[in-house]
From TrEMBL, chain A:
Keyword DNA-binding part of the UniProt annotation: yes
Protein name, per record: Response regulator
Taxonomy, superkingdom: Bacteria
Native organism: Thermodesulfovibrio autotrophicus
InterPro entries the UniProt entry points to: CheY-like_superfamily, Sig_transdc_resp-reg_receiver
Segments forming domain Response regulatory: 3-119
Taxonomic path: Bacteria, Pseudomonadati, Nitrospirota, Thermodesulfovibrionia, Thermodesulfovibrionales
Keyword terms: DNA-binding, Phosphoprotein, Transcription, Transcription regulation, Two-component regulatory system
PROSITE patterns from the UniProt entry: RESPONSE_REGULATORY
GO molecular function (one): DNA binding
Gene3D superfamilies with a match to the protein in the record: 3.40.50.2300
Automatic annotation (TrEMBL), chain B:
Cell compartment(s), UniProt: Membrane
Residue spans crossing the bilayer: 13-35, 194-212
Root EC class: transferase
GO molecular function, one term: phosphorelay sensor kinase activity
UniProt-recorded name of the protein: histidine kinase
Species name: Thermodesulfovibrio autotrophicus
Keyword Cell membrane: no
Reactions catalysed, as given in the entry: ATP + protein L-histidine = ADP + protein N-phospho-L-histidine
Keywords for the protein's UniProt record, in alphabetical order: Coiled coil, Kinase, Membrane, Phosphoprotein, Transferase, Transmembrane, Transmembrane helix, Two-component regulatory system
Domain (Response regulatory) ranges: 649-761, 768-884
Major location (coarse): membrane
Pfam families reported in the protein's UniProt record: HAMP (PF00672), HATPase_c (PF02518), HisKA (PF00512), Mcp40H-20_sensor (PF21563), Response_reg (PF00072)
Classification via Gene3D superfamilies: 1.10.287.130, 3.30.450.290, 3.40.50.2300, Histidine kinase-like ATPase, C-terminal domain (3.30.565.10)
Annotated positions of the 4-aspartylphosphate modification: D697
Amino acid sequence: MNTILVVDDNEDSRELVKKILKKQGFEIIEAVDGEDALAKAIAYRPDLILMDISIPKIDGYEVTRRLKSRIDFKDTPIIAFTAHAMRGDQEKALEAGCDGYISKPINVREFPEQIKMYLKGK
Amino acid sequence: MFEFITRKIGNKLLVTFVGILFLVMLIEISFRIYFGLPDRLKIAEAGSKEVMDTIFATIKHPLTVGDSETIHRDLEEIGNKYEKIDVYLCDFNKLISFSTDKKSINKKIDYVIDNEDFSKTINKSFTEEQNEAVFSKVFKVQGKRSLISIFPIKNSPECFHCHGSSRKILGAMIMKTDVEDVYRTVIYQMRRSLILTIFAFVFAAIIVNLFVKKLIKNPLNSLVEATHKFAKGEMVNITGYPKDEIGSLCETFNYMVNEVAKSKMELEKELTRRAKLLEERDELVALLQKANKQLKELDTLKSAFIANMSHELRTPMNAIIGYTDLLLDEVDGPLNEDQKASLKKVAANARHLLQLINDVLDISKIESGKIELRPNEVDLKALIDSIMVTFEPLIAKKGLNFHMHIEKGAEKLYVDEDKTKQILINLISNAVKFTHQGVITLRARISERGLDKEGNPQFVEISVADTGIGIKKEDLDKIFDKFAQADVSTTRQYEGTGLGLSIVRGLVALHKGMVWAESEVGRGSTFYVLLPFKKEVFDAPGPVIEERMAEALAQYFEVPKEVFLEEPSYEGKSVRCWDYTQCGHVNCPEYGCPEKRCWLVLGTHCKGMKIASWPEKVEACRICEVVRDLVLHKEPVMVELKPSEKEKVVVAIDDNPDAIDLIRKYLEKDYKVIGLLSSEEAVNQVKEIKPVAITLDIMMPKKDGWQVLKELKEDEETRDIPVIIVSIIDNKTLAFSLGAADYFVKPLDGHSLLRKIKSIETYCPVKKVFVLERDEKTSKDLISILKETGYDVTATRDSKEAINLVKLQKPDLLIINITDPDSSAFDFLDFIKGSSELKEVPIIALTNKELTEEEKEALNGRIKEIINKALFSEEQLIKELKSSLKKIGG
C-alpha cells in the first residue's frame, strides 16, 4: 500500500483528493502548510507527495527544494499540484525539484492514473 | 587716404577727372608762361623799333644839318612823351651827345648802361658792320630789366661832307625801354591764370563730384547697401535708379531679390508646414508614448491581478468539478435520473465557467507576451477534422451544414498546432453560435498578402463563412477588442466572454499573420485569418513587410524603402505594416478630413497584443489604387504537393508494454510499430531498424528518456530521425532544447500522434516502379501490392518490351525476376547498366532459386535486394517485398 502526502491549505481540495485516492487503495496523509508538510513528510516517509504551491508559512517550491536536498527524499516523487496555470509556473516547479505537475482543477477520472504513473516511474 | 580712394568707384572717377583737369591746366599754364614772355617782349621790341624809326626820322634831318638844338628839343619831347623810354645818341667813341636823359650827356654809354653784355654788343655793332637796322635785346641795367635797342647811325652820303667817308658807322642811337612792366604784367597774368585755374579746378571738381555722385556713386551705394542687406537676409528693393547700365544692374538685382524672396517665402512656408507636421507628429508620439506607458503599467497590474484571480477561481473550481464528477460516477451511491440530470448541468456549467477563466488567462498571457510558439508543419485538414469532432453534434443539432474547401497548396501550414487549433475553434464556434440556419464554410487558399522579398506567398488565408446574424459595419472593427460582443443586446442571447476573437487576434499576430472580418447584417459573416505555411516567416528577425508595399510607401513618404523594410518599430517593438484598407471609417482619426485619406497602414506588434482596431500609423495616400492594384492583381503561386506516404516503421520506446500497445493501436493502420521496452539498448536497436520516427517515454528505469534522446541526437546515424516525447511529465522546454520534434503528455491523444508522425516523417522519393516478372500470378500480386502502397506501377512479362517501356517511363525502382528460363532478364540488366539515365536506379531482384556465385558476380553488386521466391510463402513474400521497398524508399 502506497502512502501519499497531500499538501494543500484548501480543505475541500484535500478532501477531494483523499476521496478519490482512498478509493484506489492509497493511504493518505494531509498537511495544511509548508511547515506541516516538512514535518509530516519526514515523519511518514510517503511514497509520493502532492504539493500545492501557494501554501502558508513556507511555499511549495521551498518545501520541495528542502526535501529534495535530502538523500532520503531524492527518489520520492513530488508532484506540483496547483491552480496556477501560467507558463513559467510549471518550469518553476520543475526547477525547484518537482518530478511532475498536475494542474487544478483535476480530472477526477484521470487523476488516479496520473498518480499511478508517477509512482511507477519512481 | 589711398584706400579711401581705391575703395570707391565714385572717388576713383573723381580723382581721375580732377587729375586730368589738373594736368590739362598745368600744361596750359606752362605754355602761357613759356610762350607769353617772349611774345610780349617781341611786341615790345617791335614797338621799340617803330619808336626808334620815328625818333630817328625826327632827328635825322637836324642830325644831318647839325642842328643840335632841335635834336635836344625833339629828344626832350620824346622823353616827356615816353616816360619809360630813354634815348641816347652816342658817337663812335660811345660818348653820349644827345639824350632824353640830360644827365647822361657827355658820359660814356658804357657808363650809363652798365652792363657787360651790352658793352660787348655795342662794340661789336661799331666794329662789325651789321645789317640790321635795329638790334634789340633785354639787358639788366641797374637791377632793372630793360629792352635795349641799338640803332647804328650809318655814314650815309649826306654825312660824307662833314664826317668824311672813312667810317661806315658814325655812332648809334640807343633806346632803353623799361620792360619791368612787361615782366610784371606777364607774372600778373600768370597769377591770374593760376587763380583762375584753381577756381576752375575746384569748380570742375565739384561739378564732376556732383555728377559722379548722382550718376554712379549714389546708385552704386544703394546697390551696395542693398546687397549688404540682402546678404544679411533682408529682402530690400532698390528704388529710383537711373536708366543706364547701373540701372539695369539694379533692375536685375531687384528681380533676383524678388525671386529669392519668393522662393524663401515658399521655403519658409514649407518649413513651417514641416515643422508643424513634425510638431504634430511629436505630439502624437508623445501622446502615444504616454498612453502606452500608462497602458503598460495598467497591463502589468492587470496581468498580475488576473493571474492571481485565475488561481483563486480555479481552486474552488477544482472542488466543484471534482465533487460533481465523483457524484456523477456514483462513488457515494446510486443517483436517480433527475439527480443525474441536475448534476450534469452543474458539471457542464462549471466547465463553461472554467473555460471563461481559461480565456481570461489566455488573453492575459498573450498580452504580457508570455506565449512562445512552437511552430511546426501541420496538416490543415487533419487539424480541422480533429476540431470538427467536437462541433459535429452541435452542428447536427442546429441543422446546419458544414463545408470545407482546401485549395491545392494550402494543405500544409507552418504554425503552432495547439494555438492554431485554438484559433480555428474560436472562429468555428463563433460561426456555429451565431448561425441558426444555413451553411458554415471553411476555405483555405494561398494568400497574395504578406509576400516575401521575392514576391512568393508565405501565408495561407483561412476563412470561416457563416450565414448567421451578421455584424453591423460600425461594429466590425470593435469585435476584435476585448470584452466586445458586437451588440450589447446580443450578449444575453449568445453567451460568451467576448474574449475569443481577441485571443484569435493575439495568436494570429504571434504567427505574424492577420485577422479581419467581413459581414452583412442578416446575411452572415466571414472571418479571415492569415497563417504562415513557410518556416521563413518565423526566421525573419524583423517585421514582415511586402517589398512592393515598402516601395510604394517609400515613394509616397519620400524616404528610402529600407525604412519600411527594416525599421518599422514602435516603443521598441517591431511593427509590421503590410496591410492596407480603404479608409472612410468613422473610427479613423482622419475621418471627415477634406484631403482624401484613402488607405491605412495597419501596424501590428509581433509580440503581445498591441494591435489596435485602428493602427498606430494612419497616413494618407494618393496612390492607394496603384498600391492596391500592385498587391491584389498578382497571380497566386501554387505550392507543390508532397507525394503520399507509405508504410514505415515507428519505434516506440517505453518501459510499459501497455503504453507501446496503445501507440501501436493508434498507428498500426499506417505504420509498423516496433516496441522497445528497455531504454539501455534502444539507441543501437534504432540504428538497425532505421525507423521514420521514434516515440520516447521519459520516466524509465536505469536510463531515462532524456538520456536516450540526448544519445539519439548525438549519433550521426540517428540524429535526423524525429523523436516525439510521450510522457506523463510535462517538460517541453527541456525536450525541445534537446531536439525533440514534439511533445505529447499522457494520456495520449492517438490521432494527434498519428498526424504528427505523418507530418514529420521523411517521405519516400520513389514514385514509379517498373516490374519485369514472367510468372503471371506473381506479377499480378506485385502490381496490386505496389498500387495499394501508392506507387505508379508499370509491369511487363517480356524483357524486350521491358527495354522499350523503361526508356519511356524512367522509373524510380526496378523489380526484376532474373531467373527466367532463357536468361533474357540479364540482357535487360545489361541494357540498364549501359544506359546513362537508368544505371543509378535501384533494383530488387526476384529469384526462383538460390543464385550461384557466378550469377551473383554477374549482378555486379548493383542489386539492392535479392528475394528468393522459393524460400517464402506468398504472404511472406509480400512482407519481404514491403520491407525491401521501405529500405530503399527510406
